[in-house]
Amino acid sequence: MDVWDWVFDKEYELRDAGHDRLADLVDKMPGYVMDNDHEQVDAHIDEAIQLARELKQPWVEIFVRHWRLQSKVLHRQESKEMLREAVELLEFSHRPEHIDCPQSVCVVQDLAACYGVTDGPGYFKERMQVYEETLNRITPQWSCFTCLSVECISALCDIGDYEGALKKLDDIDRELEQCGENDPSAELETKRTLALVRMKKFDQAHRALDKINFEHEDPVFQLSILAYRALILAHEGKLQEAMLTLPAHTEITQNCELHAIWIEVVNMHSQHDKAILTTENLSACKRMLNLAEQRGANRTTLLMGALVSRMFNRSGDPHSAQKALDTMKRIQPLLRGDHGAAAIIDKVAAELSAEPT
Amino acid sequence: METSGIHRTQVDLDGLLEVLSRNLYSTPIVVVRELIQNAHDACIRRRSESNWDDEPSIQVISNAHRNTLTITDNGSGLTRDEIVEFLATIGTGYTRKLRKSSLNQDAIGYFGLGFLTAYVVASKVEFITTSFQQPNQTSRFVSKGGKQYHLTTEAAENSVGSSVVLHLLDDHARLADSDYLHHLVSRYCCLLPMNVYVDDTKDPVNNTPIPWRQQADTSELRKHRISLDFAKLFDGQFEPIITIPIPYDENVKINGLIWIQDGSFYSNSDNRRVSAFIRHMHITDDAKELLPNWAGFAGCVIDSHCLVPTASRETIQKDDAYEIVRTHVRNTLIDALVKIAAERGATWRRLQSRHNQSLLGACLTDDQLFDEMHDVLELPTSAGDMTADEIVRRTAESKLTIAMEQKGGFEQLVAKSTGTPLVYGFRYAVMAFCRELVKHKGVSIRTLGGEDDASLFPVFTPNEELTRALSKHFAGIDAKLVISKFTPTSLPAIYVLDQDALLKHRLESDELDRAVGSATIALARSFTQNLQIEHEAYFYVNANNGLIKNFHQFSDEKQQLVAHSIVAITKLLSNDNLSGNDSDSVESMLEGLTTSLKSLAETG
């Protein structure tokens, strides 16, 4: 199903009825997210919801609330603040009078993504069950098939099952091909890239990214592609090139989903050249770490904290290194299951106790 | 057999001319600009290389009858050798060399490509010129299409200067239309500091007073008028409320003017109008990126000496100089807005009435703007528009109380009755702005309909007798009884469902089980399972209300009837809060109310 058809029809309907403002908001909201213009989402969303309610347009309300979740959760990782909204929207969108709204399926992704951001490995089982169950309800012709598939792959990567992720990607490719959907998806290919990098298959990782037509992608995906390219290069040891490719931290302030990659690339570079650990870069790392903690991306906070602590230690700032370790310890009780957290914390603590590097 | 070696790259002149003349420029009418620019540069050159102190002059003459367009100047002219080197050789920009060698920065041209535009619009191009270096000779250059040319030099016919005569193609005959030409030239050349005449006009077409070129002794009123007229000319759509001169800075090297539009449009509309000139020559009317993205209510004209045009000279290269200019324009605008807010009451009020909400949204995208303006921008409230400080001053708890719906429930009623201005969080950018106030300025907020509502109903402990009576007769309700004191006093009670409990009920409904997959519902329920729910609903009785205050003085029978009536009315009025599983239907509530009131009436 094309989940967009009704949206276009609805816009016409609203304009014909003289409700241009709501029609504009429906038209612009997805664009704000894809153009990485998240402040515009924040500025407009409440007005859009209010208008949708006033005009008794529940499908429109579901639509704009879904896009807020996409902005806040998938890109800005604000799972703590948005989890309640995701649950409420799930309930609202599945009421008998609203269930036919195509975006009610998208809302399932939003909910699962919230838990994924909170603690990917911790909620792996539940996420996989949700994805399998929902993917079975729809066909590859649905636009959300790709989105749900991406989350499924993310879940597999979160627990380190990269081979499983690649196998799943092959299955997804086959299903999409059978439906005539042959254009590569930036979201799927970046996930494929991640799995391939973790399996040290760097050439294949490059080829996965090469499949995407960079110029045709929305700004939010262009940043993603650059970040993943930099990740491959860093793992290949091409550190200078990696740093040149990596988006500047100022370009990705709102793209929290890329912060972990940014920190990983900078960390790898710093292992060979401490000069990269400038005040600016370290401040950016600290900011990203604090943001992840504030927003409830617990597992990510732990993993980023380890790298940030090491970088501070490497730069000769054990005090800040300790603070990063403290952040990890603070987060630990919030994790759902250990999944290696204790070992990571112990390792970082041991490194800090040893002689400074 | 082919041998290896170094070879010379070939040039397909026909193809190159085709590309340069037909594809480089988006519209052939830029020929007017390019040729006027050449004329201007010729005058600059004559001044720079000789002791010439006459008034430079450029004339643009149209002849609709003969279908020609002629641009004449009294500048330096070219010698025969110079014609061959600079006019008949593509890419040799004399003006660029002049700027480099003589440090004369007044000349405009760059790429030596401008003359090519002539071949796009004309079947034949004539260039008649007398150079100041050889004033006794006049050369005539004639070309059809630019691939070949005919050049003669004879005894001087004219005084020093040049004329370019374009024999226009039929498709471009409009360039010989006087009115059209007048319009084009006045637009392209309005900042050119050299008189340009079109046809037989006595006055130069570029005689618009330029705000930043006014003499120091020009009166403030006149400067103000000139600036407003200038802004109006360039905006074309909106009147300006106020103009803001861009201060000249040696590092930035721009002159210009910003204006705020007097328009009423959606808060996030982008009506930026920016015209950019480089060295006084018009480049583009579409340079809106020079203003910040959030300034959708502003327009701007800039004249720069440091920006660099692209090869077509219709856009600007986005290099370091571009970023410096952008930053300077942005800082000028922010500084001006802050100053207007601080010093100019009536102007600021006019600006606010039109653009306050746009500025609220703008603050979300610009930290400096937020920092400098957060305390002067107004939030829409139930008591009118006011600043956050004003709102906080009017509340007992020093908080912003935010309503997320136009039609609110009892919480809004109670909040309003205390005189608390309710901030309309559902309006554009308001909620997000309030969140920024919380994050950066330590302001406290309360959102109605959330867990903070209990603070609207402070607990009150009356005397024992009243407490006993109320507890006895309100015991049957399916809610936690709380004796409180609140306004309005006319409200005897309020019934409020706990939102967490409501959500949990909905998630546990059979309906949802049928609609949502089991794994999904389990994930959603893992959220509600962690909610701390003490009571599913709260029944706040108001000890400020006459009926409640004196409740214990009624007979036992009357207490029961009054209690039933109050419960029925309150639940009726709260009906939109009731969950689907609540057993009281509207009809049964009305029945209960009727029975109670009937009994009350019959009771002595």
The chain-level structural class of chain B is alpha/beta
Oligomer state equals heterodimer
Beta-strand segment tally of chain A: 0
> What's the helix count of chain A?
18
Give the strand line-up of the largest sheet of chain B. Answer: 5-4-3-6-2-1-7
Give the termini separation of chain A: 57 Å
**How many alpha or pi helices of chain B?**
20
Uncertain runs of chain B are 577-583
Proportion in helices of chain B: 25-40%
Average of per-residue pLDDT values of chain A: 93
Element layout with pairings:
The complex is a heterodimer of chains A (357) and B (604).
Chain A: H1 5-16, H2 20-34, H3 38-54, H4 58-75, H5 79-93, H6 103-119, H7 124-135, H8 143-158, H9 162-178, H10 186-198, H11 202-210, H12 219-236, H13 239-245, H14 259-272, H15 279-295, H16 298-314, H17 318-331, H18 341-353
Helix pairs in contact in A: 1-2, 2-3, 2-4, 3-4, 4-5, 4-6, 5-6, 6-7, 6-8, 7-8, 8-9, 8-10, 9-10, 10-11, 10-12, 11-12, 12-13, 12-14, 13-14, 14-15, 14-16, 15-16, 16-17, 16-18, 17-18
Chain B: H1 13-23, H2 30-49, E1 57-63, E2 68-73, H3 80-87, H4 94-102, H5 117-121, E3 122-130, E4 137-143, E5 149-155, E6 161-168, H6 178-188, E7 195-198, H7 220-235, E8 240-246, E9 254-261, E10 273-278, E11 281-284, E12 298-304, H8 320-343, H9 345-365, H10 367-373, E13 378-379, E14 386-387, H11 388-393, E15 399-403, H12 410-417, E16 422-424, H13 430-441, E17 444-447, H14 464-473, E18 480-484, E19 493-497, H15 499-507, H16 510-515, H17 518-528, E20 537-542, H18 546-549, H19 556-573, H20 586-602
Parallel strand pairs in B: 1-7, 10-12, 15-16, 15-17, 18-20
Antiparallel strand pairs in B: 1-2, 2-6, 3-4, 3-6, 4-5, 8-9, 9-12, 10-11, 13-14, 19-20
Helix pairs in contact in B: 8-9, 8-10, 9-10, 9-13, 15-17, 19-20
